[in-house]
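WARN no homologs supplied; continuing
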Amino acid sequence: MLEVKNLVKKFGNNVAVDDISFKVENGKIYGIVGRNGAGKSTTFRMILGIIEPSSGSVMYDNKAIKNEICDKIGYLPEEGSLIPSYTVLELCEYYGALKLMSPKEIRENLIKWLEYFNVIEFLNKKIKDLSKGNKQKIQFIVSVLHNPDLLILDEPFSGLDPLSVEEIKKAVVKLKEEGKTIIFSSHRMDHVSELCESVIFLDKGKNILQGKVKELEENYEINGEKGHNLNEIFIDKVGSLYE
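OK structure emitted
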């Protein structure tokens, strides 16, 4: 289980993350939703150990996030981390080596995922020659290449065509069915509602609302009426995602 407890991150006088707490049980999908600048990516980077929290803690399976724990985590950053001049194979060899994978293991896992997405012909193709949707598929493959137990996806569907969105959503569900723990952020509330068991709304680094998705959609009241989708609930609590 991942446990984030009283997490705070300050950059000078700016409080980017302000005392948030949540738990994600193993084999569950958890959504983090908020406008740009709400603190989502900063929270992810603290979970990953990329930046240190100002206070609070992050524990995974009752252990602090250290190097050996990080090898169990996969991360798809919003800004991407592909090297345009590399082929898909070269890119995965580079990132796989950072996770101490053998060349044989890297190639086998890569081919398995390329076949899953039906793009085996990309094996020796340069990243710069791929479409945006196919680059995102490769970015996804890089994040899961080492078979992580915990997967963090920062806006994994951003800017993708509907077909690519569906392909990656199916891959996320596949990993959940294999027992992986997944956290992702998205500006699409329908994706969060469809995929996530629980969600937290962030605004200006603060926890505005959190809970199980189905319970929120069934019980949250707006003007005395229950039964609202996540987008309606977010607008009521925070405002438009795009303000």
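Residues 28 and 185 are 14 Å apart (CA to CA).
OK
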